[in-house]
Specification:
The complex is a heterodimer of chains A (156) and B (615).
Chain A (H helix, E strand, L loop, with lengths): L2 E5 L9 H11 L10 E5 L3 E5 L8 H5 L5 E3 L5 E3 L9 H5 L6 E2 L6 E2 L9 H5 L5 E5 H21 L2
Antiparallel strand pairs in A: 1-8, 2-3, 4-5, 6-7
Chain B lengths: L9 E6 L4 E6 L1 H7 L2 H12 L12 E5 L13 E6 L6 E6 L3 H8 L3 E5 L6 E6 L2 E6 L8 H12 L5 E4 L2 H4 L7 E3 L3 E3 L4 H7 L2 E7 L9 H18 L1 H6 L4 H8 L20 H7 L1 E5 L9 E5 L9 E4 L1 H6 L9 H14 L3 H16 L5 H4 L9 H12 L5 H4 L2 H9 L1 H6 L17 H9 L12 H5 L11 H18 L3 H6 L3 H12 L5 H21 L12 H4 L14 H15 L9 H6 L3 H12 L1
Parallel strand pairs in B: 1-6, 7-12
Antiparallel strand pairs in B: 1-2, 3-4, 3-6, 4-5, 7-8, 9-10, 9-12, 10-11, 13-14, 14-15
Helix pairs in contact in B: 1-2, 2-21, 2-24, 7-23, 12-15, 21-24, 21-26
The chains are: A alpha+beta (156), B alpha+beta (615).
């Protein structure tokens, strides 16, 4: 089943710990530009982390002229570094900015869910990240909507 | 030589008078000064004569980050070291946000700005590329606009910009430096120094890696710190620093009516739970830290609808309780204006309350205020005065000089009531009720400040007896030394107080920098930094006569409330003070002795400065 890193924007505070642990674990250094999950802060009120959504029919894979990107059975995008020459068409194809050019190497980088136990989720101090199937996300949204409705009524 | 990890390795020095920049190694200094406050203070001491005019071209601003900056160990921001135009002595001011990380990743442990540009400019530091760009179309713009315009001009929303508002441009003595959204290096007038150099902003983008000695081990260390934050800082996460409002007010140590009373009757309207219900938008956080203690608040309706500010305990007090103002919306609005125009909220609130006191006593009247009724609790007046001070408009031109400067201009009666230590307006605690705090604020390096010692926390929380002098000097010295180290790494004071103990600090170095520094050596470094700030101040004429609260705290006992009858007593205070000097190895006038300077390896630069000053 396809899992995504779901980000609860109302809980995200832009602390950037997810970026730090990702770059640390993938690259052995601290640098948000090497993180596969990226914080977007639209000051002052909006903070939200964005990572690959493992699309069913990924535009990045389709756009690659060198067939350097491959989607595995779990939806993870694999990058064949020897084939990738950093042309950036996948970057332009992705609607989320989730696939990025490695700042010091010639190839792209993207979230691979850390072999099933994403570090960012473990480290997020606000509990804003969850590894869930999309069905859980929609289910939760339904519950929230209904709860909000009844809360509103009870305040009258 | 052991190569130290976790540092960029360089200091960048920019001279605005001739547009030249120099890159120097930081390696020699960081061993003895660690970074942050230590490095900044040492560089300041080397770069200027301590007697320099703070607003002259020769004056410097030294921005420094620390080895923990940009890592996953919960840390906070940058520190700027400078000579204050408000106090005429040493100052350092810290600020969170992204700026410190960008500067570090651009490749610099410190940035020194000196000289004066002939025209308004801003600096653009883009990794190794450094440019001086025109700020002529930015001059006069507020801090939010400036931030947006520069990022637009440079084409990248992730650039971090430290800038001044109109207040800094007008050399308002309490002007601050603002970075990212509204992060502030607020106290002591760093913004005025920047304005005097015609420097509107510093924009930074850094893409380099931050590398540490043992990243896995450092992550384990950070995990432990985060667990402790979860366990011990629950109140901060839920309420932010405003949680102290109820505690401090109930204790009867919260100054109101410009230091005349110690409990605020309207406090219930500005407590943390009230804030969370009425105005809280969301929590905000410093990079790397899981405490998430920032409280972004917004006014939804009424006269100040739309005002947004990240409010905190000191601001709630200075623009609220101290002025007897319990209108929460107006405090948010006033905070936002301070951010927008570029001034420090603690000083601003103190100055407005002082003006209200002068107004009540007839020292100033409607003629001076331009028709504004400066009476206690007049929240509209508070909002108007913020603007007047920031823009040096009318009475604001006098008040912009700070409480001491304003009182000097207004005359003897005003000077009698003005509250400051060494020219800096104090934070939210009455010294008659908290003796350790009284000592701590009196000896703090930048003037009346709770942060270098932070001893007030232990007294307010009831962990030690606030009415006893026993052991206070010794405790204060240890705290000041530890926090000097924390300010050099750079670690947030809220987290440092109970979590970054000497043992944990010692354990941080091996995985971070690769260098082992024993606890005793760390204590020595803390002592060195504190003593160096004292030397800077000594050359500027500071001594025992300045390490004291104004007369009124000795002569006017508290008249009502739980602390009724208490006042500072000379004998008691002086006893603590001389104990403190002795423990620090300073003479009976509070001047570091040669023996102590030798011990701390400070004799070299100190001698040079004294010789130069005597020429």
């Amino acid at each position: 089943m396809r899992m995504i890193i779901s980000v609860y924007a109302e809980k995200c505070n832009g602390c950037g710990v997810c970026e730090l642990i990702c770059s640390a674990s993938k690259e052995g250094v601290f640098n948000k530009r090497l993180s596969r999950i990226r914080v977007v802060s639209i000051e002052p009120t909006i903070d939200m982390a964005v990572a690959c959504r493992f699309c069913e029919d990924p535009p990045c894979v389709k756009s690659c002229p060198r067939k350097a990107l491959f989607r595995d059975s779990n939806g993870i995008i694999l990058v064949e570094e020897t084939k990738c020459n950093g042309c950036g068409w996948c970057i332009e194809a992705c609607d989320f900015g989730a696939i990025q050019l490695h700042p010091f190497r010639h190839h792209v980088i993207v979230c691979d869910l850390c072999d099933g136990e994403p570090k960012c989720i473990k480290w997020c101090p606000a509990g804003a990240l969850q590894l869930v199937p999309l069905s859980t996300v929609t289910g939760k949204a339904r519950v929230q909507a209904v709860t909000k409705l009844f809360n509103y009524q009870s305040n009258r | 030589m052991v190569m130290l990890q976790a540092y960029s390795g360089y200091v960048l020095e920019i001279d605005l008078s001739n547009g030249k920049f120099v890159k120097k190694s930081s390696a020699g200094l960081v061993k003895h000064y660690l970074g942050g406050k230590g490095l900044g203070t040492r560089l300041l001491y080397e770069g200027v004569e301590p007697t320099v005019d703070p607003l002259a071209p020769e004056s410097e601003l030294v921005f420094a980050n620390g080895p923990a900056t940009g890592t996953i160990v919960p840390n906070k921001g940058y520190i700027v070291c400078f000579k204050s135009p408000l106090t005429g002595i040493y100052a350092s001011s810290s600020s969170g946000g992204r700026f410190a990380v960008e500067l570090k990743q651009a490749g610099y442990d410190a940035l020194i700005v000196k000289g004066r540009s002939r025209k308004p400019v801003y600096l653009w530091i883009d990794d190794d590329q450094v440019q001086i760009k025109s700020a002529e179309n930015l001059w006069g713009k507020d801090t939010f606009e400036t931030n947006d315009l520069i990022k637009e001009e440079l084409g990248d929303d992730e650039i971090s910009v430290a800038r001044i508002g109109p207040a800094g441009e007008k050399l308002v003595k309490i002007a601050g430096i603002f970075n990212d959204y509204s992060r502030t290096a607020g106290r002591c007038g760093a913004g005025a120094v920047m304005g005097s150099k015609n420097l509107k902003a510093i924009a930074v983008r850094g893409t380099k890696n931050v590398e540490v000695a043992d990243i896995e081990e450092l992550c384990h260390y950070a995990e432990e710190i985060n667990d402790l934050i979860d366990e011990e800082m629950f109140s901060y996460r839920k309420y932010g620093s405003p949680f102290s409002v109820s505690i401090v007010n109930e204790l009867g140590v919260w100054p109101t009516r410009y230091w005349r009373k110690q409990q605020f009757t309207g406090y219930k309207n500005i407590t943390a739970p009230t804030i969370n219900i009425k105005v809280l938008i969301k929590n905000k956080a410093c990079l790397s830290c899981g405490a998430h203690c920032g409280k972004l608040c917004g006014v939804k309706s009424g006269k100040f609808a739309g005002a947004v500010a990240e409010i905190d305990f000191e601001t709630l007090w200075a623009l609220g309780a101290l002025c007897e103002n319990d209108n929460l919306a107006s405090i948010i609005k006033a905070n936002e204006l301070c951010d927008r125009l570029g001034i420090d909220t603690i000083s601003t609130g103190n100055i407005i309350a002082f003006a209200m006191d002068c107004y009540e006593r007839g020292i100033i009247g409607k003629e001076e205020t331009g028709g504004i009724e400066l009476v206690w609790g007049n929240y509209e007046a508070i909002v108007e005065m913020v603007e007047k001070i920031a823009l040096r408009d009318g009475l604001g031109n006098i008040l912009a000089e700070g409480v001491r400067g304003a009182a000097q201009k207004l005359g003897k009666d005003a000077e009698k009531i003005a509250v400051h230590i060494k020219g800096l307006e104090p934070p939210a605690f009455d010294p008659r009720c908290l003796l350790g705090a009284a000592l701590s604020f009196a000896v703090a390096d930048r003037g009346a400040c709770h942060l270098p010692g932070s001893l007030y926390t232990w007294e307010v929380r009831g962990r030690i007896n606030p009415h006893s002098t026993e052991g206070k000097a010794e405790f204060l010295k240890d705290l000041e030394d530890r926090f000097a180290v924390c300010d050099s790494l750079i670690l947030c004071r809220f987290v440092s107080r109970d979590i970054y103990t000497w043992e944990r600090l010692e354990a941080l170095f091996p995985p971070l920098t690769g260098l082992k520094i024993g606890k005793n050596e760390l204590k020595r470094i803390g002592e060195r930094i504190v003593t160096l700030t004292r030397v800077f101040n000594t050359v500027n004429g500071i001594g025992m006569k300045d390490d004291v609260w104004p007369e009124r705290f000795f002569n006017e006992p508290i008249s009502e409330g739980p602390m009724r009858g208490r006042s500072l007593r000379r004998e008691e205070f002086n006893k603590m003070l001389s104990e403190y000097y002795k423990l620090r190895g300073w003479d009976e006038n509070g001047i570091p002795t040669s023996k102590k300077l030798d011990e701390l390896k400070l004799e070299d630069i100190v001698l040079k400065k004294i010789i130069a000053a005597q020429r």
